[in-house]
Design a protein that fits this description.
Helices cover 37% and strands 12% of the residues. The chain has 297 residues and is an alpha/beta fold. The relative contact order is 0.14. One of its GO terms (biological process) is protein localization to Golgi apparatus.
Length: 297
């Protein structure tokens, strides 16, 4: 029976038969529902941007978080556990995603919120923060937290060349950058994890003894270079072959593919951009840090 015959399927589809009406009604009712369910479950859920506060003890992380929350100085104490707060960007700061919106867009008037997680900076408790930066395991039962950026707070009055404070700060920063590098290089797929920018927030810049951002940058780079040279000599596993030892050295070598002395620019190979911006959490000079956070949104 041809499709053009009076009893053909195409003719019946356009005829006022009861079966045709029922099938059409079912299609109209259920197809939109099915499409909605499929698209809703396949689309990624929208979550607020999240930023991680790291840094040695006494650098001012908790004070900075308190200022983000209340826009005022508040006396704080040394944190011993991780704390996450939901804070709002100042009205004078525009997220990068909103820079090209029309001034009449009502979305510009809605508050822009972010999650900021403060972590303990004491050497015995740093593993809490570093645990969240470890490379993503393909069969891990617990998902690795995702951060849109890391704010590494330092005391700009204490990182003078040759001091133990500079050494301890650089060691902590070295470990953070190395973990971010491993997250990138250990990706099991051709699609690498999202880039994780790092802001070195040089706190207490209002004090007379504070170093400028450029000097802090060079001092940290020089100290990290000393640390990576020292650690590369010590990364050896007993009983391993020479080839395995070379792999171990390469695994722990910060700034993969970078020749010469260490510079933060080497981290771009691992999709890690490092910025150094001065400010002061106690006096409210945090505009530069807010602008950096807004540029990652």
């Amino acid at each position: 029976m041809a499709w053009s015959d009076p009893d053909g399927w195409l003719t019946r589809a356009w005829s006022p038969h009861a079966s045709t009406i029922i099938i059409t009604a079912l299609i109209v009712l259920f197809v939109p529902i099915i499409l909605h369910v499929l698209l809703y479950h396949s689309a990624p859920s929208h979550t607020l941007p999240s930023f991680l506060l790291l840094g040695p003890s006494g650098s001012g992380k908790t004070t900075l978080l308190a200022h983000f929350e209340t826009s005022a100085f508040r006396q704080t104490h040394t944190s011993q556990s991780t704390t996450t707060s939901r804070v709002s960007l100042p009205s004078s700061t525009t997220p990068k995603s909103d820079q090209y919106r029309s001034v009449h867009d009502p979305a510009l008037k809605s508050p822009k919120n972010v999650f900021v997680t403060d972590t303990p900076g004491h050497a015995k408790l740093r593993h809490v923060a570093l645990e969240s930066l470890k490379p993503i395991q393909p069969n891990a039962k617990k998902a690795t937290p995702k951060f849109d950026g890391i704010v590494f707070v330092i005391d700009s009055t204490a990182v003078n060349p040759g001091t133990s404070a500079l050494e301890q700060t650089a060691e902590y920063l070295h470990d953070v950058l190395l973990l971010l590098q491993k997250r990138h290089t250990r990706a099991k797929t051709s699609r690498h994890p999202p880039a994780t920018p790092v802001l070195i927030a040089a706190n207490k810049a209002d004090l007379f003894t504070a170093l400028p951002a450029d000097m802090i940058r060079k001092g940290l780079e020089s100290e990290i270079e000393r640390i990576r040279q020292s650690r590369r000599k010590g990364v050896l596993t007993v009983g391993s072959t020479e080839e395995e030892r070379d792999d171990e050295r390469e695994e722990e070598w910060l700034g993969e593919g970078g020749d010469g002395a260490f510079e933060f620019e080497m981290m771009r190979e691992s999709d890690v951009k490092v910025d150094v911006v001065g400010g002061s959490a106690s006096t409210g000079d945090v505009t530069g840090w807010w602008e950096w956070i807004a540029n990652q949104m």
